[in-house]
Design a protein that fits this description.
Layout (H helix, E strand, L loop, with lengths): L11 E6 L14 E4 L12 E2 L1 H10 L14 E2 L6 H5 L12 H14 L3 E8 L5 E7 L2 H5 L1 H12 L6 H10 L3 E6 L12
Parallel strand pairs: 1-7
Antiparallel strand pairs: 1-6, 2-5, 3-4, 5-6
Helix pairs in contact: 5-6
Length: 193
């Protein structure tokens, strides 16, 4: 047996949003895909922040111990829509929930404007709603996504590989991270136990 744990830069992230609980996912066959066209190159130092969002999120937070430097600002880039641009309000606004269809509309708007976002419909819920996977990564990683997925599939059952073959696959494959989000709230309110 051998260890398959090694992290490198240039990872991919998958955001899987499921509109309901207990939904079975089917194979990726026949999925519809939206891929962005590349915008002009931007330097990371040119990226600004949404001052209105930064001010409001601090107002909305009841105490400094409940805020993180990971969420107290919203990066903005020319040509890339913010949630407010698409939804009409800032995400996290008090007493405001976002419908899954609107979240999907925002992700599709991102994919249309950024080559670093790819949206794929992988199936439907029992109620006929889309189930999406949103891939976020570099242009190269998204271009090679299918190859990385196949390579990770080889590693899923290491009995079929020698240790050296597995190490070779690891050296050529980007890891894919999955974030899953499910919301079942129908209205904002106090939490009940």
């Amino acid at each position: 047996m051998f260890a398959l744990a090694r992290l490198r830069t240039g990872h991919l992230a998958i955001i899987l949003l499921v509109a309901g609980l207990g939904v079975g996912l089917t194979a990726h066959l026949g999925a519809q895909t939206v891929v962005a066209s590349p915008p002009a190159e931007r330097s990371p130092s040119a990226q600004g922040h949404d001052a209105e969002f930064a001010r409001l999120v601090k107002e909305w937070t009841t105490g400094p111990e409940f805020i993180s430097p990971l969420v107290d600002h919203l990066p903005v880039a020319p040509g890339i829509p913010t949630p407010k641009d698409v939804l009409g309000y800032h995400v996290g606004a008090p007493q405001k929930l976002t419908r899954t269809s609107d979240i999907y509309r925002y992700y599709r708007a991102l994919a249309a404007k950024s080559p670093r976002v790819k949206v794929t419909t992988i199936g439907k819920t029992d109620e006929g709603r889309d189930i999406l996977i949103v891939y976020v990564g570099s242009e190269g990683n998204l271009r090679d996504l299918d190859r990385h997925r196949q390579s990770l599939g080889q590693l899923a059952d290491p009995r079929r590989l020698t240790e050296q073959q597995a190490l070779d696959v690891i050296a050529q494959t980007k890891p894919i991270y999955t974030l899953l989000g499910v919301s079942i709230a129908r209205k904002p309110g106090r939490r009940r136990c």
